[in-house]
């Protein structure tokens, strides 16, 4: 199944998905804008028809401003996405002399396929995880945790690096960056709406004020607005999670294509599943990692990754791997203290801001 799924087919589909993702988020942002207008007009009271007419009028007047603000947000986040992701994950650059095994393994993989060398970064944490990110050759990067370097052997480390390199080859990282930026917009807009509603709105001073307040449509309008907000947010989350799950299977298969060693990746996944956690990580960047760093079980529509068991089953069925049962947790892994500061400083505090 996955061997037959060509690289260029995946790249083309990811470009198409990026376009559809952009279009879908634009539609959802418009829905949020109308919900915001409904909440504002509901605060003034009136019949449902009056409130809806006023909200439509407000929305028709203000939507270009809202979309311009979203475009500015997108442009800024697009330009500085790597710095924001590094801050959110705790990833920092590393020199070749500080991690020669890591550099040599990735360099050999890149040379074998004629690929440019991504930047290498390390997350100073004893958990086992890795991720790739970036939008173009000049800023692609692969980050691994210190624990991954300490606990994986050479073949397993190469398999993980090949998995992340496949994400870059398939342009998966571009897709997730776009989804992450729009997730930040939805978080900000949703927070803004509820803060504004919590503080209330000033009364409208107009001749028809009493007429507007005489109606009982405000409660219905508020319910409609909240339903729109909930559906919009839910759809945005489902889209983002579904994209993440699909690409993990393809990256696993791509790793086998690069290394010709499915058993090394299976063994690495079994080690990673025992201790993938990264403290204080935002759920919104968890889709970038080879396994969810939140430590939450990966099942259902709201999971960012397929389960390790399902991924190993796919490697056995389609890529010639041999099944390896779950391994007992190593005592040193269970007691490993986190090396990442618990409260990293920054403009948003502990992983706060548009991503969390």
Percent strand? under 5%
Summing up helix and strand content along with how strands pair, one would put the structural category as: mainly alpha
Shape: elongated
Number of helical segments? 11
Number of domains: 1
Strand order of the largest sheet: 1-2-4-3
**N- and C-termini, Cα separation:** 36 Å
| Mean pLDDT level | 79
Helix-strand pattern = HHEHEEEHHHHHHHH
Helix content: 55-70%
Largest sheet: 4 strands, mixed
Report the uncertain regions.
Answer: 1-7, 201-207, 333-356
Global Rg? 24 Å
Count of extended strands: 4
Please describe what this structure looks like.
This protein is mainly alpha-helical and 356 residues long. The chain has one domain (7-199, 211-334). It is 62% helix and 5% strand. It contains eleven helices and four strands, in the order H-H-E-H-E-E-E-H-H-H-H-H-H-H-H. The chain has helices at 7-44, 48-89, 100-113, 146-151, 154-169, 172-199, 209-214, 218-259, 262-274, 308-319, 331-334, and strands at residues 91-93, 119-123, 130-133, 141-145. Strands 1-2-4-3 form a four-stranded mixed beta sheet, sandwiched between helices. A hairpin with a 7-residue loop joins strand 3 and strand 4. The longest helix has 42 residues, at 48-89. The radius of gyration is 24 Å and the shape is elongated. The model is unreliable at 1-7, 201-207 and 333-356 (pLDDT under 50).
């Amino acid at each position: 199944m996955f061997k037959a799924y060509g690289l260029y087919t995946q790249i083309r589909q990811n470009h198409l998905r990026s376009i559809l993702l952009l279009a879908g988020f634009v539609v959802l942002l418009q829905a949020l804008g109308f919900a915001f207008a409904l909440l504002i007009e509901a605060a003034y009271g009136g019949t449902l028809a009056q409130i809806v007419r006023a909200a439509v009028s407000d929305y028709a007047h203000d939507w270009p401003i809202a979309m311009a603000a979203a475009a500015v947000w997108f442009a800024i986040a697009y330009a500085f996405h790597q710095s924001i992701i590094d801050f959110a994950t705790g990833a920092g650059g590393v020199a070749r002399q500080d991690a020669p095994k890591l550099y040599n393994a990735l360099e050999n993989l890149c040379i074998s396929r004629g690929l440019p060398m991504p930047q290498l970064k390390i997350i100073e944490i004893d958990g086992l995880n890795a991720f790739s990110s970036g939008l173009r050759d000049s800023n692609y990067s692969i980050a691994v945790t210190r624990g991954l370097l300490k606990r994986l052997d050479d073949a397993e480390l190469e398999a993980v690096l090949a998995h992340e390199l496949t994400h870059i080859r398939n342009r998966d990282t571009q897709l997730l960056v776009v989804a992450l930026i729009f997730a930040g917009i939805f978080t900000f807009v949703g927070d803004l709406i509820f803060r504004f509603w919590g503080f209330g709105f000033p009364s409208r001073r107009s001749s028809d004020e009493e007429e507007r307040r005489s109606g009982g449509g405000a409660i219905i309008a508020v319910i409609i607005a909240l339903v729109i907000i909930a559906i919009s947010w839910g759809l945005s989350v489902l889209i983002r999670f579904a994209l993440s799950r699909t690409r993990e299977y393809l990256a696993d298969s791509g790793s086998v294509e690069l290394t010709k060693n499915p058993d090394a990746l299976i063994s690495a996944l079994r080690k990673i599943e025992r201790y993938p956690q990264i403290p204080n990580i935002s759920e919104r960047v968890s889709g970038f990692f080879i396994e969810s760093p939140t430590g939450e079980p990966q099942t259902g529509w709201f999971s960012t990754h397929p389960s390790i068991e399902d991924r190993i089953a796919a490697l056995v069925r389609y890529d010639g791997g041999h099944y390896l049962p779950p391994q007992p947790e190593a005592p040193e892994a269970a007691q490993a203290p986190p090396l990442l500061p618990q409260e990293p400083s920054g403009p948003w505090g502990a992983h706060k801001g548009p991503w969390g």
